[in-house]
Amino acid sequence: MPVLPKDYSNSPLVRKAVRTAENHGMLAHGDHVLAGVSGGPDSVALLHLLLLLAPKFSLEIGIAHVNHCLRQAESDRDANFVSFLAAKLDLPYHECRVDVSKYRKKHKLSLEEAARRVRYTFFNKIAMENRYGSIALGHNCDDNAELVLMNILRGSGSLGISGIPALRWRNDPRLKIIRPLISSGRAEIIAFLEKYNLEYVLDSSNSDTRFLRNRIRHRLLPLLRESYNSAAVKNINRLSLLANSEEQWLEEMTAPLFCDAVMDANTDCITLSIQAILKAHVAARRRIIRKAVLTCRGSLRRIGFSHIEAILDLLKNKATEKTIDLPDRIRVRRRHSTLVITREKRPLREISPRQNVPDNMKSAGPDTAFLDMDKFSFPIIVRPPRPGDRFTPLGMKGSQKLKKYFINHKTPRYERTRCPLLVSHDKIIWVPGHRIDESVKVTKTTQKVAKAQLLLA
Asked: Among 6, 106, 344, 345, whose CB has the most other CB atoms within 10 angstroms?
């Protein structure tokens, strides 16, 4: 552990970062934190902040560095600097070397997206292998303002304007990304490093105005500050904060509508009711489609406004059979009254549009369910609802009371008591006319499928 200056904790930057960490619940006692350190000023300041907080939270800290091989000798210099820093501080050090230019060409990505994907893949791998619960990154409020402006210029919606989240959970609930410096400015960080004589390196590519982000950083933001509003960065971050909270609220409002529209789903395919989608407001329709694509694809990168609008046009098209192809082997097909979104294993040009609808999806509906037989056991009973009944609706995370589900979906009171439940060993696996439980959904690894139907006498 390094010897820190006596007044280190009184630094305005440290106080602000600690307040940010506390407000967002970033750190807990005994956390294992993996710091992504490039060697630049932001990541070096982040590392020293974590070292300062280590005794208070009993933190275990490790360092991860990615050599992108984009700046030849300069990239190697950065890697050597971070390696030396880790040794000096006696911290675990993890490094990987990836030729991002080759990776970019292979995966047909932009340079920025390729570098980002390489970094996060490595950070996630190291975190899971070494039981780090948090990945700490050095993004600051200037970075956030730049990203928001980039997204505005691209025509993004509220999600893009939300910017960089202070805290974000990964797909694995055991792992989160934290950004304690997100409320701090670049000038504050540099002043902190210079005051305490903390060494760092500079990335020369950050001055290359061929990249949009750098043009925004070096040209647009200075112009906005000097000619329009000296508090431009602060105000853009406030816009980001407001958009973020409203985005979360809108997602909560849309969730029941999404559940209403989902007829069947697994990891590679989701079937939606066109009628249920068209009942919603056009803004909600876009969110339902985006969430469905996200469910199949795992992300919405490279999925733009034009793609979503094309799918919405497909819903209003009178043709009963029509397809649209999206990036990353996503095929969207209208089939009579349903919309089927599938992620194919082969390139779409090798697959006939009529080959991509799984047989087990063709007759799915409110009164027909397909269940993974290895996920439940017999005997199965049919019973009416009871007080306190809970289940996890297909496509949702976490269980909820059946009563709350009915209320959210505006199910009339007289229908609730008459709704039969399919139950396996006291666990609800299907609410006929509504949803199966998430735990019994059919996936690509399913070996045996059970078909259940509700037949009213």
From this structure: 344
Q: HEC string of 206-246?
A: HHCCCCHHHHHHHHHHHHHHHHCCCCHHHHHHHHHHHHHHH
Rg for the chain, CA atoms, rounded = 25
The structure tokens listed for 418 are: 């008459």
Beta bridge pairs of residue 371: 450
Class level of CATH domain 368-453:
alpha beta
Show me where the domains of the chain are located: 8-233, 266-361, 368-453
For residues 201-210, average pLDDT:
92
* Residue 182: predicted pLDDT: 97
Give yes or no for residue 179 having a pLDDT over 80.
yes
Taking domain 8-233, whether its CATH number is 3.40.50.620 is answered by yes
pTM of the model: 0.73
pLDDT of residue 355: 46
Is residue 417 helix, strand or coil?
helix
Give 308 or 267, the one with higher predicted confidence. 308
pLDDT tens-place string over residues 381-430? 899 999 999 999 887 878 899 998 888 888 888 888 888 999 998 899 99
Taken as a whole, the chain contains a residue count of: 457
CB atoms within 10 A of CB 169: 11
* Residue 379 three-state SS: coil
Assign domain 266-361 to a CATH class.
Answer: alpha beta
Res 5: pLDDT: 45
Q: CA torsion 196→200→204→206, rounded to 10°?
A: -70
**SS3 (DSSP) at 435:** strand
Cis peptide leading into 2, omega within 30 of 0?
Answer: no
Buried b (16+ CB within 10 A) or exposed e, 225-243: eeeeeeebbeebbebbeeb
Q: Which residue has the tokens 């602060």?
A: 234
* CA dist 290 → 261, 286, 371 (Å): 13, 6, 25
**CA-CA distance, 51 to 27, in Å (whole number)?**
13
Q: Give the C-alpha separation, 25 to 303, whole Å.
A: 32
Q: Which residues contact 355 (CB under 8 A, 6 or more apart)?
A: none
Q: What is the pLDDT of residues 67-110, one digit of tens each?
A: 999 998 999 999 999 999 999 999 999 999 999 999 998 887 88
User: In sequence order, what DSSP letters do the residues of 261-294 get, joined into one string?
Assistant: HEEEE-SSEEEEEHHHHHHS-HHHHHHHHHHHHH
Q: How high does pLDDT run on average in the chain?
A: 88
Predicted pLDDT of residue 365? 63
